[in-house]
Structures are given as C-alpha cells and as structure tokens.
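To whoever is on call:

I kicked off a structure prediction for a single chain this morning and the downstream step that reads the tokens threw a length-mismatch warning. I double-checked the sequence; it's 185 residues and nothing unusual in it as far as I can see. Pasting both halves so you can look.
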Amino acid sequence: MIIGLTGSMGSGKGEIVKILEKEGFKYVTLSSMVREEARRRGIAEERELLMGVGNSMRKEGGAGILAKRALETISASGHDKWVVDGIRNPAEVVELKKGSDVYIVGVKTDLNLLADRILSRNRDSDPKDRDEVLRKVEREWGKGEPEDGQQVGKCMELTDYTIDNGGTLEDLANNFMKYYQQIKK
C-alpha cells in the first residue's frame, strides 16, 4: 500500500506521516530528493531555491521524475507499506497511480490558519511574515508556475480523499484514521 500526500506547506501532511509511521509505514518525501539534488548542485536549502531545483528536476527528467524515484526506493525496499509526502505536480500523482493499492490524500487548511501555523512553527526554511507565506502558498498552488512546476491546486483535484485540517491534531488524526480504516486491507 502506498499513500501519497499533497497539500500546502503547513497543512498537516507531516502529522499524517507520523500517524502512518505508527501503523508500520515507511516514509519517503519528494522534497528530500530535491534537497539532495540542491546539495549536489551546491545550492542553499532555502524554500524558494528548493522550489527552483524541484522545477528544474521536473523539466530535465519529466514532471513525474520525483515520484519515479520514490517508486524505485519503494520497490527496492521490500517493505509493503509506504507514505509518499510532498506531491506537488499532477504528473507525480499519475506516476504513483501506475501502481496498485495507491491512495492520494489531500490536506487542506484555511489560508489564514495555514499562515498562522507556518509562522508559529518557526522553521528556518519557512517564510517569516504573512505576506511571504501567502506568496509561497500561491506559488505552490501553481500561480506563475510552469506546467511541470509546482501545481498543488491541480494535485488536490486528483486526490482520492481530502481532509479539511481546520481543527485540532486529534481531529486530523480521527478524520484520517476513519479513511485509513476504509482502505486498509
């Protein structure tokens, strides 16, 4: 089983990863592949620069390249339960869906709540003010992005299930587990 996660930064995808790890899932994140490539290219690991590296990888290797690499990791592992985090282009969804027992979950959050969460978590790579958060989220969703760039909005249209993460972490966990119990074999 593969569960792929898409949604804006700060939407709660990482919290779902934690839930799935407790269920025995291993974790691969597409953004870690982008970070590795940035290091290889000698590019600083700043969100805006990483977005550019990811776009460059998709342009050079095809829009689904990150998902292809994730599937190679999954296939080589021999493990049967995986969560793939950080899906940001529809071609990544299409690539993952070539397998069987694949579910794509979208996590959405009200934009103001999302900005509050991102600003309060205070990660080095996160934007530092509300306007910057909103600009980055717009870019993630596809504003000003090429077709093989970040297109979270289009990814959200391809999900099998979407969770509105406007409540507590407990609400998120309960909502996700209801879905997981339905698809679990």
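Update from on-call: the warning came from a stale cache, not from the record. Cleared it. Sanity check on the structure: The chain has a mean pLDDT of 92.
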